Amino acid sequence: MRYDRILEDLLNRDDFLVVGRSVVRTDALDKVLGRAKFTADYVPRDTAVVKVVRSPHPHALIEGIDIEPALELPGVQMVLIAADIPGENQIGYALPDQPFLNDVKTRFVGDPVALVVAADEGSAVEGADAVRVKYSPLPSVLDTVDALRDGAPLVHEGGNVALTTKIRKGDIEKGFSEAEAVVEDLYDTPYQDHMYMEPEAAYAIPEGSGKVTVIGGMQSPFLVREKVAHILGWNLNQVRIIQALTGGAFGGKDDMGPLVCAKAALAAVKTGKPASLIFDREESVAYSNKRFPARIRYKSGADKEGRITAIDVDITLECGAFANRAPFWLWRQTAHAAGPYEVHNASIDGRAVYTNKVFGGSFRGFGNVALHFAAESQVDRLAGELGMDPVELRLRNILKPGSRTTCDQLLDHSVGIEECLTKVAEASRWSSRKRKRNGSKVTGFGVSCAYHGISTSRSTPDWSAASLILNQDGSMTYRTGICELGQGAPIGHAKIVAEITGAPMESIRIEVPDTDSTPNAKPTHGSRGLMLGGTAAADAAIKLRERMVNVAADMLGCPEGEVDLRDGKASRKGEPGETIRFPELAEELYHRGVSPASYGFYAAPKRYFDPETGLGVNYSVYTFAASVVEVEVDTETGLCEVVKVWPAMDVGKAIDPLVIEGQIHGAVSQGIGFTIMEHLKLRDGVVLTPGFKDYVVPSALDTPEYAPTIIVEEPYQHSAFGAKGVGEPAIISIVPAITNAIYDAIGVRLNKLPATAEMLHAAMRGGAR
Amino acid sequence: MRPLPEFKLHRPTRLSEALELMGALESVKPIAGGTDLLPLMRDRAIAVEDIVDIQELHELKGITVEDGALRIGALTTLTEVLESPLVAEIAPALREAVGHIGSVQTRNQGTLAGNLCNASPAADSAPALIVLGAQARVSSARGSWKVPVQELFAGPKMNSLGKDELVTEILIPELPSGSGAAFEKLGRRRGITLAVVNAAAYIAMDGKKCVDARIALGAIAATPIRLPEVKATCKGKELTPEAIEESSRACYALVNPVDDVRASAEYRREMACVLVKRAIVKAHARAGGGR
Predict the structure, then answer these.
(1) What is the mean pLDDT of residues A517-536?
(2) Which of A627, A722, A760, B182 qualifies as a cystine partner to A737, CB 3.0-4.6 A?
(3) How far is B40 from chain A (nearest CA, A)?
(4) Which value does ipTM take for this structure?
(5) For domain A3-36+463-603, which CATH number applies: 3.90.79.10, 3.40.1090.10, 3.30.365.10, 3.40.50.720?
C-alpha cells in the first residue's frame, strides 16, 4: 500500500485531524513539573549500589585481582569478576572484541575489571578503591597514526585495523582530468560527549529464580534484553527490560544501555537482591562512548561549469579500544561521501583503527557530521577556486528525483534538497548578504547542505512492530518498543494512531516499552523511531480501524465507505447527527466478539549492496537539510558566536512541526558545541575534562536567533503519511555552515575542530587576510 | 558520585556565637551559600569535622550606604548584588563582574563574600573589587579589622583567613568624580563559564589627563593580581586609543600565566592585553574621558 496516501486512499478525507499540526505533547506537563519518572526515581532507598572497578592504564595485562580487601569492608556485599559471569564474557556490538569484565588485559583507561556491590554509595566507592588489581602495563597507541605504524603495539590480536570499506564508481582519473579546479585537504574531527542531562542508569530486580527485571535508560530494550541474557547465559524470556523515560540519549544510550543494564542485572542475580548502577557525570564523560574521531583526506574536482567531476576520499576512523558501531559508522561515511550531490566518478576508502582510548560509538549524525564537514568545506573551496557562488555551485550538482547517490542508488522520489537550498537562500537573502564590521567583530555567512540515509546501515533488514488495544471505555492503549528520549517519537506514533482511528489524543495512553509486553520495534536510532515505528503504528491503527468501521457501519446502517471516525465518535459522512461514541462502539466490539486489539508490523523495502564496489541500494530513503548561518568573530580574541540560523529540511511529511523545530533547535546547539566549544582533552589516555566545568557545551545563552524553520514535504511512499526521520539530519549541515561562515568572516579555514577561540586566534595570527 | 563526607553542622543565630564556635572548634569551615564548599568537600579537596552555617546571622545581610561608601553584608547573595540599585549606581563595575559569576541558580545561592573567600584565581568579583579599592571586614572572637580585598587571596583556592576568622562585610569606597571603573571577561561561552582571563580597570581623569589608574587581572596567576606598572604608563597622559593600546600591550610581559585545560599560557598573555585595553577604554569613558 502507498503509506503516504493514507489520508486520500483510506480515510477518504482531504483534511488532517492532528497530523501536520503542532500540538502540546501529552507528556509535556509531567516533565515540566518534575513528575516524569526517570530510572533513578524508581530506585528505593537502601537498594544495593554497584560500582565499577576500572583500569587506570591505557593498556595493561592483568596479572591478578585480589578482591579480599574489598570484601573485608563492612558495607561491601559482593565483588564480581570475569569468572563470576554465568554466560559469555563478551559484549561487543558488531565484533566480539569487548569483554564484559576484563581478566586478561585492559585496553583503555576505564576498562571494567570488577563490580563491587555494596550497601550504599560510600561503601561502594571505598570497595572499588580496595580491590587490588595487579597490572603489567603494555606500550599503548594513542592515535591512529601511531596505531598504523609497522610494529605498533596491538590493541587486539589480528592488527589495529578493525575493518575497511570501499566504493569504486566511474573513473576518477578521467574525472580529475576534466576538472578546472581540484582541491585536496585533511579534515580532523574530535570526540564529542553526549552530555545528556541524565547520566547512564539501571535498576535491576531479581524475580524469584530464573528471571530478572531491569529498568534503565536506553534506546533499544530488545538489544538490552539480548545482551543481558547473553551475559547471564539465560533465555530471552527470562529477562524483562523496561525503558524508563530517558533524559537524553543522542545515540549514546544505544551503546551504554546494554553495558549498564547488564552490570546491574548481574549484580542483582548474583546477590539475589535488587541493585542499582547510576553513573556520575565524571564516569559518564571519562568512560562512556563518544562520537568517533575521524580524519578524512578529501580530494575533489569541478569543471568550468561547476560540475563536480570526481571525488577521491580516504577515511580513517578512530575506534578507541573497541569497534563497537564502527562498521556501521564507517560504512555510512563511505556511502554518503559525495554529500547530497550527483558525482559519477568516486573512489572512497575507509578504515577503522583501534587505539588505547575510550571507545567511540553512536552519536546523532552517525559519521555524517565528520563526512559533511569535509565534503561541504570542499564544495565551498571549489566554488572559491572557480569564482562561483557557493549556493550556485551546490545547485549545479544537487541530487534531484532521478539522480544517483554516491553508491549509485537511483533516487526516484522524495528528494527535496533543491527546494531546501533554494528556499533557505531566499529566506536569508543569500545573494545580497553583507559582511559587517563592528569594532573588532566581523560577521560572515555560511551555507551547507546535508543528506542522511534513514535507519540502519549495511542493508540490515529493517522492520518494526506496535500494538494497539481499544479498551471497553473507548480509551486506547498503545505499545511500541520505540523509546521516548525527549525527542517525542512515540507521541508522533500516537498522532498517527489518532489520525487513522479518530481517537482523541488524550484518550491514547502510550505505555513505557517493556519487553514482556511490548512488540519489538527494533532500536530507536538512525532517525527511524518515527518513520519505521510510526508506520508499524499506522499498520496497527489501520487494522483496528477496519473492525471499528465494520461494526459502526452496521450500527449506523450505512456502507463502510461512509463511516467517518473523528473526535472519539463514529458517524455517517455528511450526516453528523447520529453518532456513536467510542465507549459505545468499544462495548459493541467486545459484545460481538470482534477483536479490539491489533498488532502492527511493517517491513522496509529490501536493500542490498555489492561489497566489492560498495554500490547498491543502501538506505530506503534520505532526509535532506540545508542551513545558512551567520557568525560573528571577534578578531582580537578569536571568540566566535553563532548569531542567526536559517534552517530548512525535507521531512517527507511533518507529523508535528513543533517537534521538528525542537529537534532542529536542539541539534543546532549540539552542532555549535561540536564546532566551536566542546573539547575533550586527554593525556596518556586519561580524560582531563570529565564534567561540565571544563567540557564546555552551549548554554541557553549561546542559542542563536532562528529564522522560521522551512519545512519541505516530499513524501516517502513507504512510510506513514510520507514522514521521514529528522533527529540526526538536523545536526549535520550546521557544522560546515558554521565553519564556512567563519571563513567568510575572517578568511581562516580550520580543518581541525573544534574551532575554539584560542584556535581561531592562533589561526588568524598565522594567516589572516 | 562520592557522597559528602560526614560532618557536624552548627547553626548559630548571633555573630558572636558563630565567632566563638569558629574559635573553639578544631577543624571548621563556615558555610553561607555552599556553592563552592560543597563540591570541594564531595571531591575531598576540603576535609573538616565541623561546619558553621552562618545563614541565620541576619545582621550580615543587606546592602547599605554609609558616608558614600557601599557596605555589602557577607550574606548578601550575588543576585541581590546584581539587582541592587545602589550597586548599579555606585559600583557598576562590580555589577558587571557579578553578572558573569556562575548561573542564575548559583547567584541566587552564592554570596559575594563567598566568591572572595573561595579564593579562586578566576573569581570574577575580585578584579572589580580590587580596582575599586574595596576592603573586607574580617571578624573573629578577638576583634574585627579591615583588609584590602587583594589580601584575602593567598594562593589557588587558599584564602588568608585564620580558621577562626570570618569575612562579615565588603566595603567599597565612593569613587571620586571624574573617575570610572569597568570589568571585562573572556570565557568559553556567553555565560556560566569560568574565566579564561578576566580584568578590571579603574581610571581617574583630571580634564584630559589621567591622574590615577588601577588594573587587576584574574585567572592569570595563583591569585588575582594588580598591575601597578600600568598605572605608571597611564598617569599624566591623555588616554588616546594609541596610548591605551600601548599601556595594555605592556601587560604581555608583566604576566606569567600557566597552560591548563582552559587555555594556553600564550593565549592568556594575549588576552590579558586585549581585556585590559577594553576595560581601560570603558573605564575611561565612564570617567568622562574623551568628553
Answers:
(1) 97
(2) A627
(3) 13
(4) 0.96
(5) 3.30.365.10
